[in-house]
Amino acid sequence: MLAIVLLVSLVLSGCSRHDLPAGGAPPGTLPPGAEASQPSVDFVVLIDNSASITPPEQVIIREATMLLADLADPGDHIAVVTFGEAPKGKTVISRRLVTDADRDAFKAAVKGEVDFREKFSDIRAGIRHLADARDELLPTRDAIRAAVLFSDGKLEPKDRQTAAAFAQMQTDLRGPLAGLPIYAVVLGDTSSRQPIPGLPDLTGLTLMSGHLASSPTHFYHARTLEQLPEIAVTILNDTKGISTLGEDGGAAFRVDSTVELMNLIVRKRSPGSSPGSKGDAELPTSAQIELVPPAITAIPGEASPADAPDSVYRNRDYQHFDLFVVRKPRPGIWTVKCTDGKTPRVLSKIVSPVKLREHIPPQIAVNEVGLLQAWLYDERSKRRITDGYQLQAKIAEVGALDVSLVQVPLTDDEKSGVHSLVLPEGPFTALGKAPAPGRVELQVIATKDGDPWFLRRSPPRTLEVQEPLMEWRTLPTPLRPIPFVTKDLVLGGSIAKARYQDLGFETPATLRILLERRDPATGTYSPVLEQQVPGTAVGDRLEFLVSTPVPDYADYRYSYTLTGRLGTGEFRMQSQTEYFRVEPPWVLVGLAALVFLALLELVSVLTAKVRGQVQLDKTGRNPGYAAVRVSPRREWLSTAVPTAEVDLGTTRVRIRPRRHLFLFKRLCVSVTRGSDVRLDSSPISGTAYICVKARGQHSLRFNLADGDSVDATLRLRV
Description:
Blueprint lengths: L1 H13 L26 E8 L6 H17 L4 E8 L6 E8 L2 H14 L9 H10 L1 H4 L6 E8 L10 H13 L7 E6 L7 E2 L2 E5 H9 L6 E4 L5 H11 L13 E4 L5 E7 L21 E4 L18 E5 L5 E7 L4 E7 L7 E6 L2 E6 L3 E3 L4 E9 L4 E3 L3 E9 L8 E4 L1 E3 L4 E6 L1 H6 L7 E11 L2 E7 L3 E6 L4 E2 L16 E8 H7 L1 E14 L6 E10 L1 E3 L2 E8 L5 E13 L2 E6 L3 E5 L3 H21 L3 E10 L4 E10 L2 E2 L14 E9 L3 E10 L3 E3 L2 E3 L5 E4 L4 E6 L5 E9 L1
Parallel strand pairs: 1-2, 1-4, 4-5, 5-8, 17-26
Antiparallel strand pairs: 2-3, 6-7, 9-14, 10-13, 10-15, 11-14, 12-13, 16-18, 18-19, 18-23, 20-21, 20-24, 22-23, 24-25, 24-26, 27-28, 28-32, 29-30, 29-33, 31-32, 33-34, 33-35, 36-37, 36-45, 38-39, 39-40, 40-43, 41-42, 41-44, 44-45
Helix pairs in contact: 1-2, 1-8, 2-3, 4-6
C-alpha cells in the first residue's frame, strides 16, 4: 500500500524532470526552465471498481487515493475515475485542492463512491473515459500530467468482445492519450496471470506491463502486500520527491530552519489483522507509535525559539498507517519511535522553500566537456541563494555511492550562485583515474554555515561516459611553421554520417570554431577566429572544417561547439579547450645560422689580406734602413725588401693574415729560412707560425749569418 502511495506522490514530482541534452555551459548559464517554479499537478487515478479486487487490496487503493489529498500541494488538481462493467468509466470526483474543505470533500467522495461492487473489470472503459474527458480531468495548462491505473489486470467487457476492447484501448493510447505518462500497478499474482479470453497471447500482467504502462519503469507488480515496502524503497532510491531523509534507519529526520511543513507516514498494523500474521508481525499498532521532537536549541546567530508546543497534527483514521503533519517544526532531529522496541517504517515529505537544484548531463563523450551544475533556490523570493552555503559532489564507482568517502567541492561562481564541476575530468580525477568510457555515480550535497541541521541531497545520478561522438581536430604544440613550406591550419571535426543521422537533427547542425590569442601583458585571450561551419559530406563522414593561415608567434587556445535542434530540444556538444604555441622553427633557424656562419667564415678566411708598412733597421758591419709599404695581399714575404736598402742574406720571413668571421684578426709569422728569430720577444722555430693580434705595432728581430742584426717594426693590419 505504501508503495502505491509513494508511486502516486513520486509521479507528482518525478514527472517534472526534464531530459536535457549533453554538454557543458559556463557557470551561471543554466538549462532552459531550470529555475521555473515547480508547476502544479493534474493527476488522474483510474480504479478497477470490480469485486475481483480483494478486500485488503480495496482498503489499500482507497487509502492510497485519499492520502493523495493530504500530500498534495495547494493548487494541485486530482481526479478519480472508476470503471467496471459499463462501456465507459465514471468520474467520482475532479477537484482542485486548495483548502482543507477541498481535501475533506475529496476523501469523502473516495470513501463513499469507490465501492468495488461491479461484476466486470473492463479496463478499456476507464481508458475510454480518460480519453473522452481528458480536458475535464486534466484541466490545467502547463501542469505536470500523469495517470495511475490500479487493477488486477483483467480485461472483461460486458459484451465479451475482448479483441475489440483491446483495439479500442490501443487506439485511445496512441491517439488522445499519446504522451501522457500512465503508471500501471498490478495487485495480486493469481488472476493477473490468467489468459485474457479472446486474447490468448495476453495475460493481465502482460497487458498492464506491455501495453498500458508508458514504459517499463512505469510498471509495478505487488504480488503480495508485504512486497509493497520493497517497491517503495526501489522507487525512493531512483526518484526524487518524497524521500526518507532519515538519519537513523529512516526513523530520524533532519529539520533545518527553512522547513515549513513535515509530513510523516508511519506504517502500522491494520485493525483487522492478527498480531502474528505474516507482514504485520514487525509492525506496531497506532498506540505504540510516538513522534519525538528535538530539544529546543538556539542556532548560532539567531534568537532562541520560544518554548511553545509544536503544531503537530496526527491522523489515525487510516487503517495501514498514521499520518503526522508538523507545521513550522523546530530545527533539529525529529524521531519516530515505537514503544514496543520495533523499528518503525517511515516515509516523509519535508517541505522547504530552499531547494537544491542540479543539472547533470546523463551522457557525455570522453573527449567532450560538460558541467555538473548545482545551486540553491529560494522559491519564496524566486532567486538563487549566492552565499552562506557549501556544495560538494559525492563520487563513486557504480554501486558504491553509499560507502564512498570521495567528496569534491564544487567551484562557486559568486555572481550567479551556480556551483559547478567539470565533466568528465572532475569525477575521474577525484577517483584517481583518467577519463575513459564507463559510468560513475554522483550526488550533490549542500550544507549551510551556522546551521548544523541544514542538509540537502540530490538523488543519485549516473554519468555515462561514452566513446567519442565527434572526432575533433587537434594541433601539435609547439607549432613551428617553416616559411614557404607550412600549409594553413585546419580546425574542426568530423562525425560518422550514420551516428549523425541517428541523432535526428531537425535542422542541419553547425560547428562553432573559436581560436583565441593570449595577450602576454594581461594574460587574457581575445578571438582571432570565430566561425560557424556547416557539415560537408566526405565519404561516410560529415566534416566540419575551416582552414586558416598560421598565426603569428604567441600562445593560443581553441575549442569547438556542435549545436543543432533535435526533436527533443536544443543539442549542444562542447569540446575540451586545447592550447598550443606558435614559435619559430628553432632547429631550422639553428641550421641556417650554422650554414651562414660557415659561409661567413669561409669568405672571411679566403678574403683576408694584410696591408700596412714594415720598417727594417739593420745594424752591424753592413747597416741599412728600409720602409716597405705593403699593399693588400694574401701574404707578405721578406724577399719583397729591396736588397739595395737592406740585405737580409738567406733569412726568409713569411707574414700571413688570419681572420675569422670578419671579427677575429691575427698576424701570423713564420721563418722559412734562418734562425734566432723573435716576434715580440717570443722565439720562432722552424716553419711554425706565431700569431699576434692584428693591431698596433709588433717587433720582429733576427740575426743574419754575417753577424748583423735586423729590427723590423710591423705596422700591419688585416
